[in-house]
Design brief:
With 210 residues, this protein is α/β, with parallel strands linked by helices. The protein has a single domain (2-196), classed as NAD(P)-binding Rossmann-like Domain (Rossmann fold, 3-Layer(aba) Sandwich), CATH 3.40.50.720. Helices cover 40% and strands 17% of the residues. It contains nine helices and eight strands. It has helices at 10-21, 34-44, 53-59, 69-78, 80-83, 110-117, 131-134, 155-167, 181-196; strands at 2-6, 25-29, 49-50, 62-65, 87-90, 122-125, 147-152, 171-176. An eight-stranded mixed β-sheet has the order 3-2-1-4-5-6-7-8, with helices on both faces. The longest helix is centred in the C-terminal third of the chain and has 16 residues, at 181-196. The protein is globular. The two termini are 30 Å apart.
Length: 210
């Protein structure tokens, strides 16, 4: 599958590495400098190519959004026309800088705000595991895969992202419509706070034990 990544940081490159290893065709974009984008493509490997956000959107059947929250709505708004009809995998979480709280929540979510900014895109919320896990040889901890809770109003788009979540080596959980991101984003906040503020470290994750 052709995948465009907006966000050339640790999450974007970690997802890119795992997806490229499964045969997906990657264009990565959006960093402070073109050199950083080129470095991200090299990190991803497997033929990944650097580009602009516009080129990543044009390339991708699925567009992964792995940007800092403060920049997210501006970039999505600027690309809204190009994102029409695209599946957008939203990996963002609206954390405060000190990771102590969410900047929005309970009555809306980052996923819903992105859908408002690009109303003709098919937005799928699925917060991935920590970057350190994405870049590790295996994401399993204690013999279990991390859970990724997948929300979208479009069932077909949700199914595609669930398959991509499986491709990166995580356990995809169908969580229903995009509105459920109001619950999954606080879960991501809790796990992040436990890891980086409470000092448990990034070798933790949330999972649904069936």
């Amino acid at each position: 599958m052709k995948i465009g990544i907006i966000g050339a940081g640790n999450i974007g490159t970690g997802l890119g590495k795992r997806l490229a290893a499964e045969g997906h065709d990657i264009v990565v974009s959006f960093a402070r400098t073109p050199e950083k984008v080129a470095e991200a493509a090299t990190t991803i490997g497997s033929g990944a190519r650097p580009g602009s956000p516009e080129q990543a959107v044009a390339h991708g059947e699925v567009v992964i959004l792995a940007t800092p929250w403060g920049a997210t709505l501006d970039i999505v708004g600027s690309l809204a026309g190009a994102l029409a009809g695209k599946m957008v995998w939203d990996c963002t979480n609206p954390f405060a800088p000190d990771m102590s709280e969410l900047l929005i929540g309970t009555t809306t979510s980052a996923g819903e705000e992105i859908a408002h900014a690009a109303p003709r895109a098919h937005v799928v919320k699925a917060v991935p595991p920590f970057a350190v896990s994405l870049h590790a040889a295996s994401m399993e901890i204690g013999g279990r895969k991390p859970g990724v809770f997948v929300c979208a109003d479009d069932p077909a788009a949700r199914a595609v992202v669930m398959q991509l979540v499986a491709d990166i080596g995580a356990d995809a959980v169908d969580t229903g419509p995009l509105k459920r991101a109001r619950f999954t984003e606080p879960l991501g906040m809790l796990v992040t706070n436990l890891a980086y503020v409470q000092g448990l470290g990034p070798a933790i994750f949330a999972a649904l034990v069936r």
